[in-house]
Write a structure and sequence with these properties.
Blueprint: H1 7-10, H2 15-27, H3 29-48, H4 57-133, E1 136-146, E2 154-157, E3 170-172, E4 177-184, E5 189-193, E6 201-205, E7 211-216, E8 222-225, E9 238-241, E10 253-261, E11 268-273, E12 282-289
Antiparallel strand pairs: 1-2, 1-12, 2-5, 3-4, 3-12, 4-5, 6-7, 6-9, 7-8, 8-11, 9-10, 10-11
Length: 303
């Protein structure tokens, strides 16, 4: 059995074996010459013999030999070109997507900005309309801060002594009262909200006309004190200012009764403020009655 790793094939050829090889070649020299002549003759014939359309046989053989390599190279080139075009297309698409994403973010930001400006304009329009309808002199102010803490009961506005504000002036919104000024600075003021336990507002139950004192309670609600148990008070009844505290003008909306119950002597009446005290932005500070110049003339009666 043939074994290429056997010692007979792996050992070096000795000079004696080289001489035997030369003798073998010399002995079979005519055979090798014949093989060479046949190969040369075949090549000469391939140059002379032609196929269809006068194509030489050598050319046919050459094409047959190299055509698979040429096809492979052509396919590889086509695939590379397609891959490169696909990559360029994807890269351009990614760039366009990034640009469109940035434009979309900018458009959303602009929409939010315009929406906020429109909302601010609506709030200002409502506040000015309320100011014109209010038969009292007032100053518009913006809420700039609130006291720290989860249950904050004070805010800061951007008007102070420079705008003629003083302590104990009432602060209101078109929907209801907010509180009163307790500290005045040069360009700002601190307002105590009606939900603070230290506040006090003279109020009237609009339906029963029962009067009491409203003070801050728990959970951002207020409580009406000093209403006797025998008085009939039902949830949903509106509460307005009575003017008895000498701070808030009479008849301003305060809130709505949400729960009531009897106590030892006085009823326990919980009131939800009419103004959204946790979302205040613009308010009015009431200075006092309007002067004759500020009061609009009455409209002439129609005939």
């Amino acid at each position: 059995m043939f074994d290429p790793n056997s010692p007979e094939f792996t050992r070096p050829i000795t000079p004696r074996e080289g001489a035997h090889m030369q003798v073998f070649v010399a002995h079979h020299r005519p055979f090798f010459i014949l093989i060479g002549v046949l190969v040369a003759q075949l090549l000469l014939l391939s140059f002379q013999i032609t196929r269809n359309h006068n194509v030489r046989l050598i050319r046919v053989w050459t094409v047959a030999v190299f055509d698979p390599f040429q096809r492979a190279l052509g396919g590889l080139s086509t695939a590379s070109t397609r891959a490169w075009n696909t990559y360029r297309g994807l890269w351009h698409a990614q760039q366009e997507n990034q640009e469109l994403r940035l434009e979309l973010v900018a458009a959303h930001a602009e929409i939010l900005k315009l929406t906020e400006q429109a909302a601010a304009a609506d709030r200002l329009r409502t506040l000015l309309a309320f100011k014109n309808q209010l038969p009292l002199q007032s100053v518009a102010a913006e809420v700039i801060a609130s006291s720290p803490g989860e249950s904050s009961h004070a805010i800061y506005i951007d008007k102070g002594s420079d705008a003629g504000l003083t302590a104990d002036l009432p602060v209101v919104t078109p929907t209801g009262i907010v509180g009163k000024i307790i500290v005045v600075f040069s360009h700002s003021s601190q307002v105590l909200l009606i939900t603070d336990p230290e506040s006090g507002v003279g109020v009237t139950l609009q339906k029963t006309r029962v009067q009491g004192v409203l003070k801050g309670g728990s959970q951002n609600l207020c409580q009406v004190h000093y209403v006797m148990n025998e008085e009939k008070v039902a949830p949903g009844e509106a509460v307005v200012t009575s003017g008895m505290d000498q701070v808030y003008p009479r008849g301003l909306p305060v809130g709505t009764v949400v729960r009531t119950g009897d106590g030892n002597i006085y009823k326990n009446i919980l009131v939800e403020p009419a103004a959204s005290l946790n979302r205040l932005e613009g308010v009015l500070v009431i200075l006092g009655p309007k002067t004759a110049a500020e009061t609009p003339p009455p409209k002439p009666a129609k005939n």
